[in-house]
């Protein structure tokens, strides 16, 4: 087939990307990639035995999956993997945050870089990135497990062909359409109001449970069919039928309690359906493009252990308080599991960090100053931050803290949060947290926290 002038031969790019992805997968299984180590443990109110931890990987998901396979023996252990990777949209995505003062007043919305989905129209590079990761995911899945890949019109057709090769055409189960109301409109096309979820199984033994949904009767009137159970709600009469492959679910609205300000956050109701259909309580689930951690929040409530990974500071800074809240919100009868944060071993990237100062007096620890790293926010927003701080630097700088926790007996290795996070409560950011630190000389105080831009900070006192 001749290549049209000025056009890409996407079929050739797809085939080459799959070949390179397979080759890279085989290579990395023989290479020594970075190890990960526990950096933070959040175990407030939970039994913290090593077998029950949920995990957040803060780093490259390729490195993390290889580490799980080669060093943690996770091959064939994960029942469900849901991923919401970049869409090949040629866009840069941002998270929205606001400074909340002690008086409850909020700043204008500040934009923080979340992640880039800009591949310069290089479809081959994009597909190769996904291919090598899909090979790893297949290794991680149980024989009864499944993979759900969340995409849209930009690349779902190419990715489906690739997944047919990696998992097998016969392992394709469903293309689920998620339709929603929000989004843009065009005068040159029908409004694009849906995403595509590709559902693949590892083997023919995959776990799947039928879900039911309402199907309203014509005219919302009763049918009176013999042997058919009918129900009535505010709209009218309906029956319960097997769920179809088009799901109408609202996006996360601006006033939703789920909202974390993240650019591409997905609703919990969407993930609930996937989790309930393809797992049982106690089954391990994973999301390696985790964003704000919607999968983890759903699994925490539904009694499923989870693993998540993301390399974005904004994502990790959003996941930790959300998972702390989710621990408290577990459904009745479901276990509450602590979670940990694992980071690559080796020196952290050298860049400006957020710094804090604290004081310790009479077993009360107080944060007294915060100096934020503002490199990842827009230049015009830096002036807003500076103006807010300069009114009262000692107090107002603390408005930039999202949450923090104290380990009163730090071992010098991982930070253990033994009590709940100190963080936002309504419009107030607590400045103090009482901790029993033991007698003088018995332990080291250690603070770990994150500012509203996702930057991690620490403070230590012998």
Structural notes for this entry:
There is one protein chain. The chain is of the alpha/beta class. The protein has 2 domains: 10-207 and 245-344, Vaccinia Virus protein VP39 (Rossmann fold), CATH 3.40.50; 355-461. Residues 1-6, 424-431 and 434-441 have low confidence and may be disordered. The protein has helices at residues 10-28, 61-70, 123-140, 156-167, 268-278, 294-302, 313-328, 379-390, 393-396; strands at 36-42, 54-58, 78-83, 91-97, 110-117, 141-151, 172-179, 194-201, 212-216, 231-232, 237-242, 246-248, 285-287, 306-310, 339-344, 355-361, 364-371, 401-407, 415-417, 422-423, 432-434, 445-451, 456-461. It is globular. Helix content is 24%, strand content 29%. It starts with 9 loop residues before the first helix and ends with a strand. The protein has an 11-stranded mixed β-sheet, with helices on both faces. Strands 20-18-22-23 form a 4-stranded antiparallel β-sheet, with helices on one face.
Distance between the termini: 71 Å
Overall body shape: globular
CATH topology of the largest domain: Rossmann fold
Count of spatially separate domains: 2
> Helix proportion of residues, in percent?
10-25%
Low-confidence stretches: 1-6, 424-431, 434-441
Strand content: 25-35%
Count the beta strands.
23
Structural class: alpha/beta
Determine the mean pLDDT: 86
